[in-house]
Specification:
Strand content of chain B: 35-45%
Largest sheet of chain B: 8 strands, antiparallel
Number of helices of chain B: 0
Order of helices and strands of chain A: HHHHHH
Radius of gyration of chain B: 16 Å
Structural class of chain B: mainly beta
Strand content of chain A: under 5%
Helix content of chain B: under 10%
Number of strands of chain B: 12
Order of helices and strands of chain B: EEEEEEEEEEEE
Oligomer: heterodimer
Distance between the termini of chain B: 10 Å
Shape of chain A: globular
Shape of chain B: globular
Distance between the termini of chain A: 5 Å
Structural class of chain A: mainly alpha
Largest sheet of chain A: none
Radius of gyration of chain A: 15 Å
Helix content of chain A: 55-70%
Number of helices of chain A: 6
Chain lengths: 144, 169
């Protein structure tokens, strides 16, 4: 397990700033510091996260994609079918269990994420969107 | 022409071949909603927008002041560093096919307190070489950029340029 490289963190920072997540009072430097903090938080929290989700969802990029999706749901922008509880028609029980356990874990650990970001002027929803961006970057770059 | 009078006619907005600001729409809050065309300048990489302009025959040599009305896509703090440069298309002399090193005059401008509000920074040029010796009646490429990699550019998110105006200083 590792953290994103400096250039990958920069890409995540640039991608997040191109999104629209409401009014942002933080500066570019503060957002970049938040990206670093969120990536470090994912790195230090991933083992605990893996322990709470079903074994079938623990390999490869799956946990990061799951965490990214849960973060999206947490900020109110999850996929409509997932948000409605219709996760996977072919295997709804296992996937729904993964989403339920992951949601419970992130709900319990959101305060830790906010603390890790260290007072950056971002709302919880904006930090969750940042978590989503970092997790998708880690999944795409196979940093897990 | 008296100082303060408009003297730069914007003929056309033209994105350069690469590193261009992207055309977007800023949707307003009225009913029906306004949909203002803006050019989005990235926060992490320098992007440009070109404007084909003509300097009025009445320009009297007082230098130029450009105004760049802009809003922030989401930010409510931080500064954007804007730059303007001029390439005069001199009669039978300046060849658009040859490379030109644009010499930017720049200014930092703090984001408005709400992301839908405008700010109106100005960038000035003295008459002569500073404005590439642009002469009355001639065309020029007026290049606008956001110098996003400059240390003074601290604003997160896109900067939305609404237009460009030039007057005699």
């Amino acid at each position: 397990m590792a953290v994103l490289s400096d250039s990958q963190r920069r890409e995540a920072w640039a991608e997040w700033m191109r999104g629209r997540y409401g009014a942002v009072s933080a500066t570019k430097g503060q957002v970049r510091a938040a990206v670093d903090a969120v990536d470090e938080w994912v790195y230090s929290s991933l083992a605990a996260f893996l322990a709470t989700i079903p074994e079938a969802a623990r390999s490869g990029a799956a946990p990061l994609v799951l965490l990214a999706n849960i973060a999206a749901i947490g900020r109110g922008s999850g996929p409509a079918d997932v948000a409605a509880g219709i996760a996977d028609r072919s295997n709804p029980a296992a996937l729904l269990e993964a989403y339920n356990s992951a949601t419970a874990w992130l709900t319990a650990n959101t305060a830790g994420l906010v603390a890790a970001a260290g007072g950056v002027s971002l709302s919880t929803q904006q930090l969750l969107s940042l978590l989503e961006t970092v997790c998708r970057k880690r999944a795409a770059a196979e940093v897990f | 022409m008296a100082s303060g009078q408009s003297c730069v006619e914007v003929i056309e907005a033209i994105p350069p071949a690469t590193s261009y600001a992207t055309l977007d729409a800023r949707v307003g809050g009225s009913s029906p909603a306004e949909s203002v065309s803006v050019w989005d300048f990235d926060a992490s990489a320098i992007e440009y927008m070109d404007f084909l302009c003509r300097l009025s025959e009445n320009y009297a040599g007082g230098g130029l002041t450009f105004t760049l009305p802009w809003s922030a896509a989401s930010a409510t703090s931080g500064a954007t560093r804007w730059g303007v440069a001029i390439r005069r298309m001199t009669d039978d002399a300046e060849d658009i096919d040859t490379a030109k090193t644009y010499d930017f005059n720049e200014a930092d401008d703090t984001a408005a307190s709400a992301s839908g509000e405008l700010s109106y920074p100005t960038i000035t040029f003295t008459d002569g070489a500073d404005m590439d010796s642009w002469a009355a009646g001639d065309l020029a490429v007026v290049r606008v950029r956001r110098n996003a990699t400059h240390a003074n550019d601290t604003m997160t998110g896109d900067a939305e340029l609404w237009g460009v105006f030039g007057k005699e200083s």
